[in-house]
Design goal:
The chain is mostly helical and about 450 residues long. The chain has one domain. Helix content is about 65%, strand content about 5%. A two-stranded antiparallel ribbon has the order 1-6. A two-stranded antiparallel ribbon has the order 2-3. Strands 4-5 form a two-stranded antiparallel ribbon.
Length: about 450
């Protein structure tokens, strides 16, 4: 049955390898079960309900992606978007969280229309192959950067933006050990090297102090817990911003930002993960891209209905790909573990950042290996590619990095009288990014509000 459903032989994989990869993906993204409720609770939403909703939406959306595409890509409420939802829309603009959920739903409807009509697929096709490779590499640096940050290897610094952490502390030293250990295991081609690295560091954390008398890994009081009811946030979205023209104009910039960030974060993740999984064709096109984008669209609608910020494709899926995952069985495993997390949350949450951070760093190294496919001898190819690669981690946004690279490619193509470097649709996407970067949309809407 699994063979017929997921075509394991055609993808040169096995049930055992897929299950292991699904566990790896889950271990790398399990932090969202704690972090997403923590962020969204600042809006006044019920934290216990958010834990349940985070697990449910991740499981259902991931299963949809697996069944529609057979791709090893897991989904969950997105980091970054949840912060925008909380701190910009709700707290910054004073929008009630139920209204913000309504905006997420409208964003999902637009997503669905763009997916069904093929517009989003054309956007992927409009990105040059060299930039697709650059997106993969940029995400590689980004995910490694996140790993180093989560592990305390690098920390914030007001003078230099980033600085090295205190390597002598238990968690950081354990993280550095985990990076070296996992690298050695992977280099020696030890089966399940990434999962093994996570397990070893988690166990060692029981004997390493984190400070304040606590250990890096702390045993839970109990292994099982019943999930909280999702009722406080389930189906609580409202649409009062659609009742008047002025309210709609105020909501439009927020919806547009949600749309752009969501769309290009998803596109970037699809390109990056499928490239590493060997699913991209030689010309850079993605088979079943329409189905993958449809899955993302349905996930966005699902998130609004259940009561959380936008559910997106997770770049941590790359860790499962590096562990051997090639089909939807990987993500079905991740989905099942997300459901199991509703009852095993105390056990799952003991996995420390020092254990998951090394996995992210190693995955980032894997993804950076694609840089050899970019023709760096051609400056007109190298410039947009390099700006994309460094733009993604330095702006802390996949979407912003893609926009920076596309704008550069478009302007260079026009200035050098080589317009064929981008398709007409590609120039259009670059123009949208240009207008968004310089807040032209917001200014136009502000002008329109004066006449309403």
């Amino acid at each position: 049955m699994l063979q017929r459903l997921f075509h394991l032989d055609q993808n040169n994989t096995t049930v055992g390898r897929e299950l292991q990869a699904g566990l790896t993906t889950f271990a790398a993204m399990a932090y969202i079960l704690a972090v997403n409720p923590l962020i969204l609770a600042n809006t006044g939403m019920d934290k216990a309900a958010l834990v349940t909703v985070t697990a449910l939406t991740a499981a259902i959306a991931t299963a949809i992606m697996a069944l529609l595409t057979n791709y090893p890509i897991a989904l969950a409420p997105g980091m970054g978007i949840n912060a925008f939802f909380t701190y910009t829309i709700v707290i910054g603009r004073g929008v009630p969280w139920s209204e913000a959920l309504g905006m997420v739903f409208v964003n999902g409807v637009i997503f669905l229309v763009l997916s069904v009509t093929g517009v989003r697929e054309r956007i992927i096709a409009a990105i040059p192959h060299s930039l697709k490779i650059a997106v993969t590499c940029g995400i590689g640096i980004f995910i490694a950067f996140i790993g180093l940050k989560n592990g305390g290897v690098i920390v914030a610094n007001p003078a230099t933006f980033v600085a090295p952490g205190n390597f002598a502390t238990g968690p950081v030293a354990l993280c550095l050990f985990g990076i070296v250990l996992t690298a050695i295991l992977v280099a020696r081609r030890v089966p399940g090297g990434i999962v093994l690295g996570i397990a070893v560091v988690t166990i060692l954390g029981l004997f390493v102090r984190a400070g304040g008398g606590k250990m890096v890994t702390e045993l839970p009081e109990s292994l099982f817990a019943l999930p909280a009811s999702p009722a406080p946030v389930f189906l609580k979205l409202t649409f009062h911003f659609l009742t008047t023209a002025n309210a709609l104009l105020m909501a439009l910039p927020l919806i547009l930002t949600l749309l752009l960030v969501d769309m290009f974060d998803n596109i970037g993740t699809l390109i990056g993960v499928t490239k590493r999984a060997g699913l991209l064709r030689r010309d850079g096109t993605l088979p079943k891209a329409g189905r993958a984008l449809l899955s993302d669209s349905l996930a966005t609608l699902l998130s609004a209905l259940f009561g959380t910020s936008t559910v997106v494709s997770y770049i941590e899926s790359a860790s499962g790909v590096e562990a051997g995952g090639r089909t939807g069985l990987t993500t079905m495993t991740t989905a099942a573990l997300m459901l199991g997390a509703l009852f095993l949350t105390p056990l799952i949450l003991i996995i420390p950042a020092a254990a998951t951070a090394p996995a992210l760093v190693i995955v980032g190294i894997f993804m950076m290996q694609s840089i050899t496919e970019i023709d760096m001898s051609d400056f007109t190819t190298a410039a947009p590619a390099v700006l994309t690669i460094i733009g993604i981690p330095l702006t802390f946004s996949i979407a912003e990095g893609i926009g920076l690279g596309l704008i550069t490619a478009a302007l260079m193509g026009l200035a050098l009288r080589e317009p064929n470097r981008l398709t007409a649709f590609g120039y259009g996407v670059a123009a949208v990014f240009f207008l968004e970067f310089f807040h032209v949309w917001s200014r136009l809407i502000s002008i329109a509000q004066r006449f309403v």
